[in-house]
Design a protein that fits this description.
Layout: E1 13-17, E2 28-32, E3 37-40, E4 45-50, E5 54-64, E6 70-84, E7 90-98, E8 112-113, E9 116-121, E10 127-134, E11 142-151, E12 156-158, E13 163-166, E14 173-176, E15 191-194, E16 200-203, E17 214-219, E18 224-230, E19 249-255, E20 260-266, E21 280-283, E22 288-289, E23 309-310, E24 313-318, E25 324-329, E26 332-334, E27 341-343, E28 346-351, E29 356-357, E30 372-373, E31 398-403, E32 406-410, E33 423-430, E34 433-438, E35 453-461, E36 464-475, E37 481-489, E38 494-498, E39 504-507, E40 510-515, E41 529-534, E42 537-540, E43 548-549, E44 553-557
């Protein structure tokens, strides 16, 4: 091939020889070089021109991968047309792309070729049209794309114009993350607690047969699970040993003396469903069952509940004075004297000084029992009727922290067997008082349920700011498992149904929020706050109908 002397800056007439020719018959063609002239990989120009590449698809979809679970696929479609001397001399065409290289070429570092290409030649053999698709792209990320053709001589000729495009931003979509490892068996009713730094800890839960007594943490940056420790009840020296349990409750307490965050694990039940009243603490700093040195008052255990109970809620709220109030309550309790089971309508707060549930200061009943009756609860069978109605509690409800001073609670089953679809916003106005406000009722399509899961997201998306509470899954009054999910917008007080949570119907799952930055999602992508739903007991839609405990993990991108 003869090399031409070109002056592209002056856009002059150039002589190009030998790039495409009949065998044994050289030729010389004079033509104008402009911004559409094909650029040869042999450092010159090729006879022909490229039209501007056009994006034809920019979307995402869910698909079932080779494990028969749903995954997230972001993909682009591109269409091009090249005008060349003789299309019969073209043996390949396609697209090369890169996230980092603004002038991508084949075999160059960080450059990849589109997987799918369709092309055809026109009747005049002077133009060739082709299009391609590339799947599994990073989303909401700039990608640099360059079309090319290859001739019989093996010369690759590129479109001089590089197409730079930001891929789509998926929204309202669930996709599966890494399942929990084999050492973290499938289970339901895991007890969770989230620290002030946003790390969520997971204790116990019920498997196929037994309950567990291990502590785990989820590492969002690497999408991995890390086991912290497994408690051995025989190591404890008191009756408040950390027995294997599920469907209990937990809250965190920061011990300023030892600079340690403690997790208080309250109540719950064993694998047979028998409830416990014994509580214990876990030291995050020392990764162990609480010793005397860990407890703020030098004790090894937490004061037991007055009666065994399960299915409670627990949370921390901050009062206007800045005091942290540790709250636990509701759930199902069993009176040890009469063996009668009843749903608890009350909330308590934990007094770390007395290390027990504080007596009511108004009645001065020093029995370590109830401090506050949540009188704004109404009968679920007459939803929204509040005021003077007798307080009615729930068990297997949800409690989600919105900010330091606000928690949303609701759903569950009451003492009359009614399932709930009422939610309340809870705040602390001082250490011994809690204010509640009922949220607007969800739409009629929202089924009353218990054993649901929920999380809260505050995020930015395409220029807008959002603050939303999410709730879904669970079991309805007829025993049907659910996978629908709903969002409540705190800014405007409205509900809307979002995409169903995977293809798994489940109850007893855990829900929490994370900040996601990993190699799957570009660090510039938004929103980085995501919701997670994991574990529980359920079945795949269209499956055999058998309910099994699960270890799958699903991430929601709002």
């Amino acid at each position: 091939m003869k090399t031409s002397h070109l002056i592209p800056y002056l856009m002059t007439i150039a002589v190009v020889t030998g790039c495409i020719k009949e065998d044994g018959e050289p030729y010389t063609i004079e033509r104008q070089i402009d911004q559409t002239t094909l650029v040869s990989s042999l450092k010159g120009y090729m006879y022909g021109n490229a039209s501007t590449d056009v994006i034809t698809k920019d979307t995402f979809e869910l698909f079932f991968n080779n494990r028969n679970i749903q995954d997230l696929d972001v993909y682009l479609g591109v269409k091009s047309k090249f005008y060349v001397y003789d299309t019969s001399r073209i043996i390949q065409c396609g697209y090369v792309y890169s996230y980092s290289d603004t002038m991508p070429t084949i075999k160059k570092k960080d450059c990849e070729v589109f997987e799918t290409i369709n092309w055809n030649q026109d009747n005049n053999h002077d133009s060739i049209s082709f299009e391609g698709e590339q799947h599994k792209l990073q989303f909401h990320t700039d990608v640099h794309i360059r079309s090319f053709v290859v001739n019989q001589k093996g010369d690759t000729c590129y479109n001089p114009q590089v197409l730079t495009h930001k891929t789509s931003m998926p929204s309202d979509v669930w996709y599966q993350r890494n399942d929990a490892p084999g050492l973290f068996p499938a289970r339901e009713g895991i007890i969770t607690a989230t620290t002030d730094k946003g790390t969520t800890y997971f204790y116990g839960g019920r498997g196929t047969i037994d309950c567990y007594s291990d502590m785990w943490v989820y590492i969002a940056t690497t999408d991995t699970w890390e086991q912290k420790c497994t408690f051995n009840p025989t190591d404890a020296h008191t009756y408040s040993s950390p027995v294997e349990r599920c469907y209990g409750a937990a809250f965190t307490y920061y011990n300023t003396t030892t600079n340690d965050t403690l997790i208080y694990i309250i109540g719950g039940e064993d694998a047979t469903g028998a409830a416990t009243k014994y509580n214990f603490i876990y030291s995050i700093k020392n990764n162990r069952f609480g010793y005397h040195a860990d407890h703020p008052n030098g004790r090894q255990y937490v004061e037991p509940l007055d009666n065994p109970r399960t299915g409670m809620i627990a949370f921390n709220v901050e009062s206007p004075s800045g005091e942290t109030v540790h709250v636990v309550g509701m759930g199902m309790f069993k009176d040890e004297m009469s063996s009668i089971e009843a749903v608890e309508p009350k909330l308590f707060y934990y007094d770390v000084v007395k290390d027990k549930l504080t007596p009511n200061p108004e009645t001065n009943e020093d029995d370590g029992t109830h401090i506050y009756t949540w009188k704004t609860f109404g009968s679920v069978s007459k939803e929204g009727v509040l005021g003077d109605k007798a307080a009615i509690g729930f068990h297997h409800s949800i409690a989600v922290k919105i900010n330091k001073s606000t928690v949303i609670v609701g759903s569950g089953e009451d003492s009359d067997g009614n399932f709930g679809r009422v939610f309340y916003e809870i705040k602390s106005n001082k250490a011994s008082e809690i204010e509640s406000k009922q949220l607007p009722l969800p739409p009629e399509d929202f089924k009353a349920r218990k054993n649901a899961t929920a999380f809260y997201l505050e995020y930015n998306h395409l220029g807008g700011s959002y603050s939303k509470f999410y709730v879904g899954t669970g079991v309805d009054k007829d025993g049907n498992l659910l996978n629908d999910f709903w969002a409540y917008d705190l800014a405007n007080g409205t509900w809307n149904q979002i995409r169903d949570c995977s293809n798994i119907l489940r109850q007893g799952a855990v829900g929490f929020s994370i900040m996601r930055i990993d190699d799957l999602v570009n660090k510039g992508a938004e929103p980085q706050q995501r919701g997670i739903v994991a574990f529980g007991k359920g079945t795949q839609i269209g499956g055999d109908g058998g309910y099994t405990v699960r270890n799958d993990v699903w991430e929601y991108l709002p």
